[in-house]
Design a protein that fits this description.
The chain has 279 residues and is α/β, with parallel strands linked by helices. The protein is 41% helix and 15% strand.
Amino acid sequence: MSELLCGRFRLPLTRPLVMGILNVTPDSFSDGGRFDRVDAALERARQMIAEGADLIDVGGESTRPNAPFVSPEEELARVLPVLPGLAGLGVPVSLDTRRTVVMREALAIGGVDLINDVSALEDDGALELLASANVAVCLMHKQGNPDTMQRDPRYADVVAEVGGYLARRVALCEAAGIARARLLADPGLGFGKTLAHNLALLKHVPALEQAAGVPMLIGLSRKSMLGAITGEAVPAERLGASVAGALLAAQRGAAIVRVHDVKATRQALDVWRALEAAE
């Protein structure tokens, strides 16, 4: 697929796109509490766009392992105030939510171009809502919920099982009326997976894309899998590992990489693409 129909935008997929992470939460694993005021959130979004972000992904609920429950009302109170400002920044706005009620309220006020759902539209009414909305959708795989997903994840064949799940969710979306040109898939690194599971999924991005039949979004920025490899316990100190992971994902065919460190990631991708284009 050469482009993604993404709300107000048609995004060419001729190069890997960079999605900048904007957490308007007090408890996200890496930057919780830094951007939970509207002015700080918008300033951070403008900074990421200046650094080369192609999309901004805003979320009001932390889905890190062992994250506490956040009510839909609290999630709405966090994300709705920032959406109008984000909508005027000239790039697609992605809303990271798994709740139909949050999707509905956000879509009603406008400015959302992509719904990034860690539950792949499993919440009641989500499929029907987004079938009638002019936005893109990212369908993510997870095993379990954030409060329990890392206790003992098990798979017989993680690549086949995750690929099969994503393929089934894509088929359900199409049956509901969501065009394939509006869809992305995400294997959900760190969402109910061990380090071995995560590495297998990252290694086999092409097989996952073939199974799902839609472009792949990969997010591993600052995640604990990188800490397990490098020994770095502090998420914000995993810059080198995060950039390497994003570059490896792009080299394996990821259409979009979701990152905290936009500038460093953009530079790495630019160098790789220049080398690929060289005689």
